[in-house]
Specification:
The protein is an alpha/beta fold. The protein has helices at about 25, 35-40, 50-60, 70, 80-85, 110-120, 130-135, 155-165, 175-180, 230-235, 245, 260-270, 270-300, 305-310, 315-325, 330-335, 335-340, 345-355, and strands at about 10-15, 45-50, 65, 75, 90, 95, 100, 140-145, 190-195, 200-210, 220, 230, 240, 255-260. It starts with 10 loop residues before the first strand and ends with a helix.
Length: about 350
């Protein structure tokens, strides 16, 4: 739920990409929450939706940093690339014995995450409760968009359509390629910050995915637990991309760049010895990080595997069905065609029918 700009109001009712966020249902338990929702005026609204089985997949596969030094942005060249990469990534989990989340502690995606999600509403499946709370918004003012509409080659066209519907500036034709990029490619792996001790001072090297340097207007940094948005004047005026300076190339693997504060760059470029140390280390580290990315990609579980797991856990599958249907009551009343279009959810419903 968010208002954007002074010329228009865009209310995002439901946003399903990941587990780990406190459910809107938890917020709604607060005695004053309904007052907050009642203050939201009549406006157009956007309902971002997704096949519930794909939501589960996204939550199970969600990666985060678990290496303490990486979380504190205090990596050192004294650490071997293997040590960092092998200890960098953690996954969600659920400890049934202690009835608690093991967020970030698992070595690979695990099905137990589903149990925690359904029990504690770690994610939403297009929440009907929130729809009921937004009492000033009419059903006819809600535009429903499936996640498939904002992914890959369809994203640019969809954003142009939404720009007309909500009266915000349409993306530039030059932005088309950016909308097609997979932003979670280095999820959990980047950004990383290395501390380098020079004679004069300690400097920070920022290893980042260049797609988060969107354009000359804005820069997005994605740390461990939240998203920080820095305006252009606070980043590009103070930070320097030094990939070309160090390596005579614009990036690594088309995505990875090295940045440094401009004031530190003036010192670094005078220190040939430190520059060589940085080059030697990063030329070993970056390929190892890319190797780790491929390792983590190979661990991902698919919708088909989730369906198979649910098929072998009848009681759990029926519990999931009840949760999904409760969340989808509103969507079923206004856009049943979208629900019918969900391949994996329809397979899930057929499976549950056979179990009954």
């Amino acid at each position: 739920m968010k208002s954007i700009g002074s010329r228009f109001s865009l209310t995002i009712i439901l946003c399903p990409p990941h587990f780990g966020y406190l459910s809107i249902r938890e917020y709604m338990k607060d005695k004053d929450s309904n007052k907050l929702y009642a203050l939201i005026p009549q406006t157009k609204a956007l309902n971002l939706i997704r096949d519930p089985i794909s939501i589960l997949k996204s939550g199970i596969n969600f990666r985060r940093k678990r290496l303490q030094m990486a979380q504190e942005e205090n990596l050192s060249f004294a650490l071997s690339p293997d040590f960092i990469c092998e200890n960098l990534i953690g996954y969600n989990g659920y400890d049934a014995h202690n009835d608690e989340s093991t967020f970030g502690k698992e070595d690979a995606p695990c099905f137990g995450t589903i149990r925690g999600s359904l029990k504690y509403n770690f994610t939403d499946f297009h929440d009907t409760d929130l729809r009921k709370a937004l009492i000033n918004i009419a059903d006819e003012d809600i535009i429903c968009i499936d996640m498939s509409e904002i992914v890959g080659k369809r994203a640019f066209e969809t954003m142009n359509t939404l720009a007309k519907a909500f009266s915000f500036p349409a993306p530039k034709p030059s932005d088309k390629e950016k909308f097609e990029v997979n932003v979670s490619y280095y999820e959990g792996l980047l950004p990383l910050v290395f501390r380098v001790q020079m004679e004069q001072k300690s400097i920070a090297l920022h290893l980042i995915d260049k797609i988060f340097a969107l354009d000359e207007r804005i820069y997005v940094k994605v740390p461990v637990d939240e998203v920080d948005i820095w305006q252009h004047k606070n980043t590009f005026e103070h930070y320097q991309d030094i990939t070309q300076f160090l390596f005579n190339q614009d990036n690594f693997y088309e995505r990875i760049i090295v940045c440094i504060e401009k004031k530190d760059f003036e010192i670094l470029k005078q220190d040939t010895k430190t520059c060589e140390q940085i080059k030697e280390y990063l030329l070993a580290f970056i390929p190892r990080l890319e190797e780790q990315r491929k390792i983590e990609e190979s661990k991902k579980l698919s919708e088909e595997q989730i369906l198979q797991y649910l098929h072998t856990h009848k009681e759990f599958a029926l519990q999931a069905k009840a949760v999904f249907e409760k969340h989808l009551t509103f969507l079923a009343s206004v856009r049943p065609d979208i629900i019918e279009s969900w391949k994996y959810y329809q397979e899930f419903l057929a499976m549950c029918e056979e179990m009954s």
